[in-house]
Amino acid sequence: MKKFFNKLEAKADALSQEFLGQASPSKTPVHQNQPSTIQPPTSDDIFRYRYHHGANLGSIFVLEKWLSGSMFPESAKGESELDAVKASVNEKGIDETRCIWENHWRSAVSQQDWDWFRNAAKGTSIRLPVGWWMMGGSEQASRLKGTEWAGLEGVYCNAWTIVREFVATAHNYGVGVLLDLHGLPGGANAEDHSGTSSHKASLWGNKKNLTLAKQSLHFMATEIHAGMHGVEGLQIVNESVHNAQGMYDFYSEVIEIIGRVDESIPIIISDAWDLPTAISWTQSRHPYNCIRNPIIIDTHRYYTFSDKDRASSPQQIISTIPNELHEVNPGTLCDKGEVQIIVGEWSNVLDGQTWSRASPQEKDPLVHQFGLSQSSRWLQKSSGSYFWTFKMDWMDGGEWGFVEQTKKSNILIPPFLTIPFSDIHALVSKAQAERQGACGQARGDHENYWNGTSPGEAFEHHLFGEGWEVGFEDAMAFFGARCQGRIPGGTGCGGDRIGGVEGWVKKRVLESGQRGKYAWEWEQGFRNGVGCFERAVGIL
């Protein structure tokens, strides 16, 4: 990763121009209306579309030596998963290595850890990096044949079963899991955390590797569809290299593959260190003409690896945070298309050269300010964020540790996750009492504005009111889900907010059946209804 940042600074940003200027249709394309299929949000919906306050669980299923050095025999020739497992098999054999690896996987998060994550940290989500070599079920051995992982299926034969167990345990605690295909065939990037120390990004432009990747993702989608409750999304690439050959073609093909299995699974793509281009690409996919899966852009935010960061003081870096993610400025789905992001990795780490520009006594207050600035911004501009990372050999992890940074109050816990159930009941009652008046006011404002702007046009203002009612009802359903027992593992506090608003808007607009010239009125009403409820209960 460190090498990558320095290389990126020297690159010309040619790809970012590929999609810029390709705006989505400026007017809603007119189609025939369809019957509404809207139903109340399910538990799975809430797991997937609420705001994700999360952490990564790195170096469990995809080892990284700097986090889990205890899993690396002295004979290991590199710092990747493959280096560790080959060294262990050479020393101890397949069976003993399998026992060691399975113990690492199963013991990664104890009951005490889960209790702390849910109750103290108020965590809602885990981003779980996994590797392609774990996939395939009965076809696992044949898929590994001819690759650097050949002969190691005996170590990983139970890995996916243990992932399924992990997801089920998390669900019982009310915690969702984002399945992140961190390690892809050949590597989506040249770093050790792709599973090997080849130092090549050999996924791109390699037909065999791309086929293996698609097979792995099809396997994962099929497994999720079969009933892995609590999976909040499937990430198809982690940290792709910038300007990778055929990356967006690969995204399109995989989205089709997953969509044919299950159009409800949120699909997460890497921004490849180029968020504007990724946004332009997602906006170019009009919701009426594409697979329905919500598409979410994963962007990572670190401030410790580049020469620019090292040359800056802590105060200078902190001052840039309020402008981060400024590219994320969604309009209406009908007009601009879909834009939704997560901050899939971030930390409170700054380089030693950066800290040399501050006095030692300033460090703790500055780390506190840095962490709160970041987490506040992610809450404002994204549908969720995942701190890197939850567990390591050297707990509590310093500025890399979710545990230590939470204990030091250096990460903002979204306030709505701490509201007592008794207050949630009272707030919902208050919002309900104000509902009719708020709807009337919003609809009146909408009608007066558009009738004044375009007098004589035959609007369909009733659509605004219909959308408003659905939006208000949905926001209320998310907020009250825990105290109503719809999310497992209730602890007496916590409301949820629709975090993936753009994806949820897309889902509801499509389900509404509105395809006519004024479908945008339904969408505007929906968004307004969500906002009115959230303002009424004080979480907007």
From TrEMBL:
- Report keywords, A-Z: Cell wall biogenesis/degradation, Glycosidase, Hydrolase
Any idea where the Glycoside hydrolase family domain is? Answer: 91-349
Keyword Disulfide bond included in the entry's annotation: no
Q: Which GO terms describe its molecular function?
A: glucan endo-1,6-beta-glucosidase activity
GO cellular component terms, A-Z: cell surface; cytoplasm; extracellular region
User: May I ask which residue range the UniProt record assigns to the signal sequence?
Assistant: none
The Gene Ontology biological process annotation of the record reads: cell wall organization; glucan catabolic process
Q: Which Pfam families would you find in this protein's record?
A: Cellulase (PF00150)
- Domain of life, per UniProt, equals Eukaryota
Q: Which family does it belong to?
A: Belongs to the glycosyl hydrolase 5 (cellulase A) family.
Protein name (Swiss-Prot/TrEMBL): Glycoside hydrolase family 5 domain-containing protein
Q: Organism, per UniProt?
A: Hymenoscyphus fraxineus
Q: What is the lineage of its organism?
A: Eukaryota, Fungi, Dikarya, Ascomycota, Pezizomycotina
